[in-house]
Amino acid sequence: MKYIFTTIVALALQISIFAQVELINKVSKNGELNDKKFEFKTLYDIEATSIKNQGRSGTCWSYSATAFLESELIRLGRPNVDISEIYTVRKVYQDKADKYIRLHGNLNFAQGGAEPDIFYVIRNYGAVPEIIYPGLNYGTIINDHGELEASLKGVLDAVKDKNGGKLSTAWKSGFNGVLDAYLGDEPSVFTFKGKSYTPRSFADKYLGINANDYIQLTSFTHHPFSQWFPIEVPDNWTWEKSYNVPLDQMMNTIDNALEKGFTIAWATDVSETGFSLKNGVAIMPAKSWKEMTQQERVDVFTSPHKEMDITQELRQKAFDNYQTQDDHGMQIVGKALDQTGSAYYIVKNSWGKRENPYRNGYIYASEAFVRYKTISIMLHKDGLSKKLNREID
Question: How far apart are CA 99 and CA 280, in angstroms?
Fold first, then answer.
């Protein structure tokens, strides 16, 4: 019995550490794989860089935002470059640690973050290429941040709980020492394509991205429309504000941006049964999953079925009841219609080139799913309608 109890405790701890990894495993198994397929006609398919793999880490926010930024570079005619996701992650770990201590531990210190964090880092520190900072210094070929997170959190809690009444002068050096050990020393000067850069000069001169050109929209009724507010999710550690618009306007913004060639960084909830990586679709069937037979559960992933009518009130209720949470970030790169004329969004993921019937590493998310499960969207301000752009300015 002692062995069984110890095993259960160990498993519970591992689930806590690898929360997003468990989520990946869960949604990968949703639905049963079938030979039958939806038939998609592509309307827009905007150029994106190669599929990446966040591995065993809760860093989807950095991978999706970086993929978005790389597409922006292509759109702007800038050099096509693989940008380091983990450099951004490192700088967020550092600044989040400082805020955690200042708030006496009353902040969610974990692997998660928010889409705008990439511009927070670019604005304050810069960026580096992937080849310069892959962030793999601990014997694996893909990310594995469970041990890293636990080590960092241990340092912070030791500092927070110290009884001396005064912070030591060494804790930040100790914290950064853990980051160095796992991710590698932070690059201060590096050579890329024959030229010398700092993270600051690489972001400013090579990438040439203006972080202030990017905005985040959301759509909830617990705050007034046409106003800015910080979305109340644990990973919004900077309290970054989003502009609140009605649901239909948010969806129209997505369509307008895609039509004009702008991709979108998408914060969403993929814990729904209808998100099936294996089947390559994310859907919200009108019929309750509990009321479906086993065969009906199979059929909804094989061909178009009636989906839920998603209203502003319905999505708000799901958010208020924790049924919609900020648990994954991806990149919307296009739009397609199925054989009935229903709309789906083409979404680039960061879980490697996992196979599905349509496009490995991508998923087709129905309009109903996007209406229901979107936490926020981030895009270049030129992707907004002229009216909304004037309103925000």
Answer: 39
Q: Give the separation between CA 199 and CA 224, rounded to whole angstroms.
A: 39
- DSSP lists the bridge partners of residue 45 as 334
Angle 20-282-326 from CA coordinates, rounded to 5°: 40
Residue ranges of E strands in 272-368 = 275-276, 281-282, 328-337, 343-348, 362-366
The domain defined by 24-392 folds into Cathepsin B; Chain A (3.90.70)
Which of 239, 267, 242, 241 is CA-nearest to residue 99? Answer: 239
CA distance 240 to 267: 14
CA distance 348 to 44: 14
The answer to whether the CB of 286 falls within 8 A of the CB of 308 is yes
How distant, in Å, are the alpha carbons of 125, 175, 238, 359 from that of 87?
Answer: 10, 16, 18, 29
User: Tokens 């739009």 sit at which residue?
Assistant: 335
pLDDT digits (tens, 9 = 90+) for 206-255: 999 999 999 999 999 999 999 999 999 999 999 999 999 999 999 999 99
The torsion angles phi and psi of 377, rounded to 5 degrees, stand at -130, 145
Residue 192 forms beta bridges with which residues? 195
Please state, in angstroms and rounded to a whole number, the distance separating the CA atoms of residues 59 and 90: 11
pLDDT digits (tens, 9 = 90+) for 11-20: 443 444 445 5
Which is nearest to 145 in space by CA: 118, 111, 115? 111
* Among candidate residues 285, 254, 266, 288, the one with its CA nearest the CA of residue 375: 266
E-only strand ranges, the chain: 41-45, 190-192, 195-197, 214-218, 228-230, 241-244, 264-268, 275-276, 281-282, 328-337, 343-348, 362-366, 374-380
| Phi, psi at 241, each rounded to 5° | -90, 145
